[in-house]
Amino acid sequence: MDYLRVTSEPDLAEALSVDGAVPLAGGTDLLVKVRAGVARPGLLVDVSRVESLRGLSRSQDGLSIGAALPLADLLGDAAVRDAYPLLATVLRSLGSTQIRSRATLGGNLANASPAADGALALLAYDARLTLASRAGSRALPLREFFRGPGRTALARGEYVHSITLPAPDANQAFFFHKVGRRRALTIAIASVAGLLSLEDGVIVDARIAAGSVAPTPLRLAAVEDALRGCRLDAALARAAGDSASREVSPITDVRASADYRRDVTGELVARFLSTALRASS
Amino acid sequence: MRIRLRVNGREREVEVAAGDRLLDVLRDGLHLTGTKEGCGEGECGACTVLVDGRPANSCLVLAAQMDGCDILTIEGLAEAGRLHPIQEAFVEAGAVQCGFCTPGFVMSAHALLAATPNPSDEQILEALEGNVCRCTGYAKILSAVRRAAAQLGTRDPSREAA
Ligand SMILES: Cc1cc2nc3c(=O)[nH]c(=O)nc-3n(C[C@H](O)[C@H](O)[C@H](O)COP(=O)(O)OP(=O)(O)OC[C@H]3O[C@@H](n4cnc5c(N)ncnc54)[C@H](O)[C@@H]3O)c2cc1C
Ligand code: FES
Ligand code: FES
After folding, report:
1. Domain of B46: which CATH number?
2. How close, in Å, is residue A31 to chain B by CA atoms?
3. ipTM of this complex prediction, to 2 decimal places
4. Which of A120, A182, A220, B27 has the fewest beta carbons closer than 10 A?
């Protein structure tokens, strides 16, 4: 295994065009896999010092976050925390202080774990990705990025450049809950992140993302569709929980059974809506 | 490859292999064995050092990535043979049993108190969430960090005001 540090995107794109080359950002997923022998990259291309991948910029289109910006930097920005409280809440629960010093959103997404927490918040915000390679760059909605556990839409030699979140809606209620065995450092058994917009008690927009309950992090589109236009009440919250349990397709593994994961997801979705109901009345 | 880094204030130049971790270079290359390896995968915090002022798991960082960086390890805290106030506070609070986790906790506490001189208990617990102790339970560690914050506050009033 070799190591190469690049400091510009042209050099990065060039380095990644070689067979066996993979990006290394914070290393908090990749280096664990390398040590365990699960990943055997020929060349680690260190992206952490490419300035253009560490940006944080606001425009009318929203917020653009460099793929290699450490989470600690993102969380250190008060304006980001205020405008995107769901993102801040989720990232504060990711790993530990030590992990957040180095971990990045680019790594969280490209690692494509069904349990990726950052991915949940970004899915709920309808994030768009800018992907780049020697051939140029392209935009892709995050929803189309995940293809399976550890698999993404990244083509060979392509990297995540940045993540763009649309301008925030200040009146959204948000919810995040991760069920695991220990507060810090938990790989979730099931997790739900949601955003809800209400007008006079009627749901105008609901976005619900679930983790660890399908081959990829996903939005519960059927639940969201069923909620839109409905008056939020306790019965609706329960019904949405039940349909969330049906919409997910979890597996049984050492951490939990499939049935338990279904139940937890349903319970979390119901809790999200009933909390929002209480807060609005 | 050769890298240059600053460790505990001293410029160092070391030869490293691509797969070497910062932890390996500190312990085996520079004989700074105060930094411990517990799990080797980011879970226990025994290997915590500060990289450019931020706590990081030295078991999850490649040495090669540290070229040009400023590293602080537990050996860099004591001055002129006197323990650092955070170290003293751990001793006084009885927060050390076997001691294996202690360097990591002290480094995490150091990063916290540099940024937040007057932390709430919640902030202390959050700062220490990546450190595991198998002996003490966490009450004495929490009180050690409280004690260190108070101590540092009286020693350096300019920080308290910040
Ligand atoms: C102790 C511990 C606790 C953790 N807790 C959590 C948790 O609570 N929630 C959670 O979601 N995750 C958790 N993780 C996993 C990990 O920290 C996160 O997924 C993190 O965001 C990964 O980012 P990174 O920069 O470290 O990625 P890296 O390890 O550097 O890279 C991960 C993958 O992404 C690729 N990659 C990196 N950057 C790019 C890019 N710009 N373009 C294309 N590909 C890229 C790499 O090639 C690699 O395949 C934990 C990990 C550890 C060790
Ligand atoms: S040895 Fe690094 S976190 Fe356990
Ligand atoms: S004192 Fe023994 S592990 Fe903490």
Report:
1. 3.10.20.30
2. 6
3. 0.94
4. A182
